[in-house]
Amino acid sequence: MSTMDILAVHVTSFPGEPMLKTLATLGALTLLPTAAPAAGLPDYPFIHVSGVGSTVVMPDLGQIDFEIAAFDADPAAAVGVIAARASEIRAAMEQAGVPLEDVEIRDVRKDFRKQDPAAAPGPVLYDIRAGVRINVRDLSRWRAAATPLLAMPNLDGFMIVFDTSGREKIEMALAGDALRIARRKAEGIAAGLGRKLGAASAVSTGDLKNLTRAMGLAPGEPGSRSPAQRIGTERAELLTVMSLKFAQPVDVIYRLK
To answer: Which of 232-249 are b and which e, b meaning 16 or more Cβ less than 10 Å from the residue's Cβ?
Structure first.
C-alpha cells in the first residue's frame, strides 16, 4: 500500500452577507502521489472541502394542532361538549379572518378514562377526543386566531408549526452560497501548496460518507432539508411567532492541477 499524506484542517468563516450567513468547514486535504491506496478514494491528487450555508428567516405560514377533550359518564354528553367547542372554534376563526376550509376538525375517538388506583372507586368516565388543525396562511392574523384558544376549556395537546412559502428559493440560495464558500477555501489551500485548483469531480449535499470513512475521519452531521419549525407548547406561548433556521451543507471534491 502506498504512503498517503493526510492534512486535516478545520476553518470557520462568517462572511458579511446580511441575509445568508455561511459556515465552511475544511474537512481534509489529501495528496496521493500514486494510485489510490484504498478502495473508494480517487486515484488523483484532490482536495475535499465542506461548506454550509445558513440563515434565519421569519415564516409566513403557520399551523396550530390540538385536541378537544371531554370526560363524562354519559358518552353522549361528552360528544355534546366536543360539538359545542368545535362550533366555538369555527366561529372564533371566522371572526379572526381564517377561512373555514382551513379549520379541520377530525378523528373523533372514544375511550375510557383511566382511573387512579389510589383513588376511591367512581363511575367509569368516557374519554372523547377530536383532533383540530388550523392553517393560518396569513401570519398577520396569527394573534387574532390564537388568542381565543387561550380561554377555551377542553383544549389539550397544543403543537404549533411555522414554515415559509419561499423554502425552495431559500434552500437553493443556501446551496449556491455553500458551494461558493467551499470553492474559496479550496482555492486558498491549493494556492498555499503552490498548486492550482482543478474542476470539481464530486458534489454532495451532505457528508461523503464513503470517502470520509476511507480517510479515517469522523463523519459530520448528515445533511438534509431544513424541517418546518414544530414546537410543542403551552397555551401562553401560542401568540409567539418563531423564526426559522435553515442550513444547507455541501461536500465537494476538487482535482489538484
So the answer is: eeeeeebeebbebebbbb
